[in-house]
Structures are given as structure tokens and as C-alpha cells.
Amino acid sequence: xxxxxxxxxxxxxxxxxxxxxxxxxxxxxxxxxxxxxxxxxxxxxxxxxxxxxxxxxxxxxxxxxxxxxxxxxxxxxxxxxxxxxxxxxxxxxx
Length: 94
Description:
This protein is of the alpha+beta class. The chain has one domain (2-76): Alpha-Beta Plaits, CATH 3.30.70. It has 2 helices and 4 strands; from the N terminus they run E-H-E-E-H-E. It has helices at residues 17-28, 48-65, and strands at residues 2-11, 34-37, 42-47, 69-76. The chain has a 4-stranded antiparallel sheet. Helix 1 (17-28) runs antiparallel to helix 2 (48-65). The longest helix is centred in the middle third of the chain and has 18 residues, at 48-65. It is elongated and about 45 Å long. Mean pLDDT is 89; it is low at 87-94.
């Protein structure tokens, strides 16, 4: 089952960019997932069974290296696959 995760990491420290960049780089190292970053968040799209262990491992690593931080995460799914199977987002009824 494919899902999409939107995640934002906010290290509560002066020099916050290296921690964020390292976290995003580690997420992007998984070739089977699509990882796209914007100035506000990072979106990860792919198989639930790949994403959740990756997030567990990489959040543990990130939080261990940052004295205090905030993580905001949203999960959406299941997504439609290329064959149109699965439940995708629907438009609101008028």
C-alpha cells in the first residue's frame, strides 16, 4: 500500500540547518521512495512498509543528535497506484 508522508523537523537550536539537511539526505538515500523537499516540509511517497521503518530509524538518529526539537508529520493513504487501484484522495462534493 502506497502512502504519502509530509514531515517537518524543527531543531530548537541556533545552527539548525545542518541537522535538517542531514535528515533529508538520509531519507532521500532510499531509492524505492520519492522524496521531495520544499522550504516548509519534506514529502515522502512510497510503500508503507518501507516508509515507516525508515522514519523510525531516521527520526531516532535525528532526535539523538539534537538536544530539543519538534517534528510535525502527516500521513495520507492509501494512494492510488498507477493502475487506478486503491483509495486516492477525492474532491469535495459541491
